[in-house]
Amino acid sequence: MRRKLTQRGRQRREQLMHRAARLFAERGYDPTSVADIVESLGVGKGVFYWYFTSKEELLAEILKASNHDLRRRQEAAIGDEPDPLERIAIGVRASLEWFRDHRDYFSIIQFAATDERFAPVLRRNRETALGDTIRHLKDAIVAGRIPDQDPEMLALAVLGVVEQLTRRYLVDGDEPVDRVGAAAVSFCLHGLGG
Amino acid sequence: MRRKLTQRGRQRREQLMHRAARLFAERGYDPTSVADIVESLGVGKGVFYWYFTSKEELLAEILKASNHDLRRRQEAAIGDEPDPLERIAIGVRASLEWFRDHRDYFSIIQFAATDERFAPVLRRNRETALGDTIRHLKDAIVAGRIPDQDPEMLALAVLGVVEQLTRRYLVDGDEPVDRVGAAAVSFCLHGLGG
DNA sequence: CCTCTTGTTGACCGGTCGGTCAAGTGCTCG
DNA sequence: CGAGCACTTGACCGACCGGTCAACAAGAGG
Predict the structure, then answer these.
(1) B79 touches strand C (CB under 7 A)
(2) Sorting pLDDT into bands at 50, 70 and 90, what band is A107?
């Protein structure tokens, strides 16, 4: 759905996306009806379909926008840091901060990952995150900072560590990012041998 | 729902659970209707409600049963292995094998983790998996095999690595368990410095 | 101040869903 | 062989859902 939007229109669209994200996180995507979303904002149903062609498109847009935002945060944090391992560490910390500030999106993303309807968008998002990490890992291997192993496997392992610690300590819990970040980075660098 | 079941009844119940699991994995829990499940087996709708009080109870039962099965496989594989780190490695490999043989359950579990309706069951399952790993890690710390760190964080990190590699290489892909298991164990033991 | 586009309303529609139930069928065991 | 319980059928129900639309409001630009 492409439309000419005024300033007010763009705000309304964002408002719908944010509110929907909150409701999706609370009750789940399918159980949350379009009626729920518009009622929660006190507007008519037509408003929704002025900005989105379908509920499915809405979630796809939410996924795209959030991924874009997270990636921007990572890039801003990494800046021009030269050390590839430090780039990963910074990226990890930036991701933790982002999820702490956007708890809702964690379960939305996880849901979307299980649903064929959103597989295309989700896969694209996951590939870019993976690609970024792989790039840094390859740099680290070339620089002789870490042994020569399959960088894709390593990247997946790193993302797995981050995902679990994020869920437990930042989404379900409320631990300080620093502590979680330090633990994540330490495990990724040295494993159980700490 | 507790009922006296004959042999035939128990088979029917299992048949319903297996078929439902397959459909849930393919189309998702909410989009799969009870009518879909019974039609796919060529039986009437009443059959479903003879064995389960609701669709929700069915999924809860699927989650409980699959977790029980996975845990049995882990215990059988570990046997009386004395080395705590080796126990973890064996448990990891057993889990990988189980998920390779039960691909369907991966996305079902992941979906359930995002839905408040199934949070109680899912949380219990997760806690036992976490508890098992933590126990081995504490043993390893006491035995001086690894440095003294927060075992819960370490356990979460291990589970995160296993989860990601499982999804990529056993659920989406079709890699041999040995290769994936070796990579997972290696990363968990030494991190990127592997 | 008028016009044209953006934005909003909410009743309405066809379809589906989870769940019920009265009526039957077929084992099983005494 | 008959009684009673396990099991099955499938039409039916009320609720709700995603999506449409005709009519209307509002504000920007000329």
Answers:
(1) no
(2) very high
| Cβ-contact B89, B182 below 8 angstroms | no
- Cβ–Cβ below 8 Å for A160 and B156: no
> Is the CB of A4 less than 7 A from some atom of nucleic acid strand D?
no
Which nucleotides along chain C are within 7 A of a protein C-beta?
5-12, 16-23, 27-28
Domains contained in chain A, CATH given: 1-53 (1.10.10.60), 59-193 (1.10.357.10)
ipTM attached to this prediction: 0.94
Looking at the partner chain, which of B26, B154, B183 has a beta carbon nearest the beta carbon of A153? Answer: B183
Mean pLDDT by runs of 10 across the 194 residues of chain B is 89 98 98 98 98 98 98 98 98 98 98 97 97 98 96 98 98 97 98 86
The proportion of chain A whose per-residue pLDDT surpasses 70, expressed as a percent, equals: 99
For the stretch A168-179, pLDDT in tens is 999 999 999 999
Distance from CA of B5 to the nearest CA of A (A): 33
